[in-house]
Amino acid sequence: MSRDTVKGYRILTGYTQQDLADLFGITKQAVSQKERGVTRFSEKEMIVIRDLVREVIPNATIDDIFFNKKVNKSKKEV
Fold it and tell me: Topology of domain 3-66, per CATH?
């Protein structure tokens, strides 16, 4: 996971770390650790964040947000 990717999506949606902490029932520090890659987001948390991001970017996926998987469409498969 790119350290700044999840944070960037969170900021894009207008949520603070405290907002996510309240939503997940964890501390703001725990959210910070998850964003920095110290600890992992749970699958449930990933789904919630994906759904929040989809309010702004309707086709966002968990891979886009958490794993930063980009497909280079200019390369053709042989």
Answer: 434 Repressor (Amino-terminal Domain) (1.10.260)
